[in-house]
Amino acid sequence: MDLTKLGKINVKYLYLLSTILIIIPLVKPIGLPLSVRPMTEQYLEVLTSLEEGSIIVWNDMSRPETWDVQKPIQVVTMKVIFSRGHKLIIFCGLASSPILFQKVIDVVDPEKNYGAKYGEDYVLFGYVPGDEIAISSFATNMKATVSLDYYGNKIEDLPLMENINTAEDADLLIQLGRTEQAYDWAMRQWIIPYGTKYIVMGNEASIPTIKIYVPHLINAYVAGIGQAAELEYITGFSGDALKNSDANNLALLPLYAFIVLANIAHFAGKSRAREIVEE
Amino acid sequence: MVLADIIGIWVGAFMTLAVLSFVWKENKIYRVAEAMGVGGAVANTLVIVVNSLRATAIYPMLKGDFLLIVPLVMGLMIFTRVTDHYWLARYPTLFMVGVGTGIMISGIFQAQIISNIIATISQLFVAGNVINIIGSIVGFIGCITVISYFIFIGKRGPVLTVTSKIARIFMMFSFGNFWAAELILYIGMFVGVLIFIIDTFIRATLLGI
Fold first, then answer.
1. Chain B within 8 Å of A202 (Cβ-Cβ)?
2. Quick check: A56 and A170 in contact, CB under 8 A?
3. Which of A10, A76, A164, B165 has the greatest number of CB atoms lying within 10 Å of its CB?
4. Do A23 and B108 count as a contact with CB atoms less than 8 A apart?
């Protein structure tokens, strides 16, 4: 049997198989078991260990491309923050982030669900351009960096910002980075100079970079749809990630199968080449 | 659902299916969707940037902070790149690069070099279960061998030849890890796209469930 043919299977069959396996659990949920990683519990522990009324600064860099993966994490994190009575200051690092974050606020509905008031319990500053320079400037002097919030209110008119101006006033920094470099920016400009507690959100591609800094600089992280589902499970705030975790898990199965088949074809080809040389 | 939401969902569904059609083969519908996506993103960015200018420059200047005219003028100088006086665009660029580099260097040694060295070494002395201890030792060996691979790049003796082979294995595992993480991300994004098509478009909009 010629095993090298396994490496020549058209990749479109992989796409088709993945699509079918994603659609099945969306139409009829299967309910695959879920195990919770210690890092997810640690992330929740950092949020819940803060005293009530703590000041949390959130640097958001949501992007439309990865929003489906990141939105569940944002929603659950925000729900935990408001359910604990913490104060939240959000500033954004991408032009698209304030629009996407507004959608998160609409889902969480802090006023209706948690009695939080805009301006007193949470404030959304829009896009603050400058990447690392913006984070540095915001950490050093928030009132000099932004003068209006996302809705056009003057910063002087926001009660929450009355006694808050620098990173020293923040008890926790949360960041949703747009690339792996974004976490470096926050570590250089906020964590090292001010020693603030720091947790991050991200996607699966960020994990190899984030893990390097745990736990000495990054206290905890939640990255990817898998951890988002775990976070929803342990907090009890069910959402999109838990609902769709079956689809995410099953979608990877054809991929694993094709990787195994491709490796079999590769080693079969090498073995055949060796046989030809020996002949 | 309001009319604007319904139109948005239909446009989103059309563009999603049009872009996915590229998987079969490139076609004109895909190109239309691609152009719409790029145009929409640029327009959206323009609106956001104008709003940002209003908040960070125009409003403070109206309050009396006239020094902000300097960065505003420097920003406008960038546009001279498309004119005959393109050399003017170099000055704001140089300023940005200088400021950015200065700000970066101030934290890079502590954040990315010293703290990581301390963490790599201190992990060896943290009590834990057998797997964590083995992991710490393996990580330390990987760190030392990969660093030596890039530092000692000339002719290698017998010891460095062995360490460079070990380093290559670690690097291959590392690249594979990065690639696998990217792949899982793309699968997650694809699931999100299909959820939009099935839940939001077909169920909610077409079938009204």
1. no
2. yes
3. A76
4. no
Contact assessment for residue A220 and residue A231, using Cβ atoms and an 8 Å cutoff:
no
pLDDT at A234: 93
Look at the pTM and tell me if it is higher than 0.95: no
pLDDT band at A175 (very low <50, low <70, confident <90, very high): very high
Top residue of B182, B185, B199, B200 to mutate, by most chain A CBs within 10 Å, is: B185
pLDDT at B127: 65
Window B:119-178, CB contacts with A under 8 Å: 119, 174, 177-178
3-state per-residue secondary structure call for chain B: CCHHHHHHHHHHHHHHHHHHHHHCCCCHHHHHHHHHHHHHHHHHHHHHHHHHHHHHHHHHHHHCCHHHHHHHHHHHHHHHHHCCCHHHHHHHHHHHHHHHHHHHHHHHHHHHHHHHHHHHHHHHHCCCCHHHHHHHHHHHHHHHHHHHHHHCCCCCCHHHHHHHHHHHHHHHHHHHHHHHHHHHHHHHHHHHHHHHHHHHHHHHHHHCC
**Residue A223: beta bridge partners?**
A202
Per-residue pLDDT tens over the stretch A246-259: 888 888 888 888 88
Instruction: Tell me which chain A residues have a C-beta less than 8 angstroms from the C-beta of B16.
Output: none
What is the interface size between A and B, counted as CB pairs within 8 Å?
146
Nearest C-alpha in B relative to A193: B107
Q: Are the C-beta atoms of B201 and B182 separated by less than 8 Å?
A: no
User: What's the CA gap between A94 and A192, in Å, rounded?
Assistant: 23
Per-state percent for chain A, helix, strand, coil, to nearest 5: 60, 15, 30
Q: Kindly report, residue by residue over A48-86, the tens digit of the pLDDT.
A: 999 999 999 999 999 888 888 899 999 999 999 999 999
Can you tell me the ipTM of this complex?
0.81
Section B178-189 average pLDDT: 87
CA–CA dist A91, A2 (Å, integer): 58
Count CA atoms closer than 13 A to A209's CA, side-chain side.
Answer: 19
Residue A162: helix, strand or coil by DSSP?
A: coil
Q: Residue A177 in contact with residue A202, Cβ under 8 Å? A: yes
Interchain CB contact of A153 with B (< 8 Å): no
How far is the alpha carbon of A172 from chain B, nearest alpha carbon, in Å?
18
Q: Which amino acid is at A220?
A: A
- Please give the single-letter amino acid code of residue B62: L
